[in-house]
Amino acid sequence: MECMEAFGVPRRIVAFVIPAGYSFNLDGSTLYLALASIFVAQAAGIHMTWPQQLVMVLTLMLTSKGVAGVPRAVLVVLLATSSTFRLPTEPIFVILGVDTLIDMARTSVNVTGNCLASAVIARWENELAVPTAD
To answer: Where are the alpha helices (DSSP H) in the chain?
Structure first.
């Protein structure tokens, strides 16, 4: 949050957007869930149509809200979604082996998305301090 203030985003915008983003703007988690669920389907040899994939991604977008503060909660969401779409759970246990490494990338994408959202909101409100050339 201090880095965003140093970037030029006002404190009141940073203090609202970043904490709200950790509850609602989980880009990395949603992307991970979408790719992981497609991996589960492919590993099981199940062909999913585009409409099925779209419904699954929309479902994942809704069910992934609020998982940032709970370790391994993404795997629980993935297990629940797999059972909803009648996908097997065995490939999820393969993902479990590399989840710690993937978690670092997922967190990085979440943080980057929240910082970008702060800058966009500040720019939208015409409050982003743009450095001037002297």
So the answer is: 2-7, 11-24, 27-43, 50-63, 73-84, 90-96, 99-124
Which residues are CB-contacts of 26 (< 8 A; sequence separation ≥ 6)?
64, 65, 67, 68, 110, 113
Contacts of 104 (CB under 8 A, 6+ apart): none
Burial profile 94-123: b = 16 or more Cβ within 10 angstroms, e = fewer: ebeeebeeebeebeebbbebbbebbbebbe
- Give residue 72's pLDDT band: very low, low, confident or very high (50, 70, 90): confident
Characterize 34-44 residue by residue with b for buried, 16 or more Cβ atoms within 10 angstroms of its Cβ, and e for exposed. bebbeebbeee
Q: What is the pTM of this model?
A: 0.76
Using CA atoms of 78, 84, 86, 87 in order, give the dihedral in degrees to the nearest 10: -10
The CA distance from 101 to 90, in Å, is 20
Measured in whole angstroms, how far is the alpha carbon of residue 105 from the centre of its chain? 10
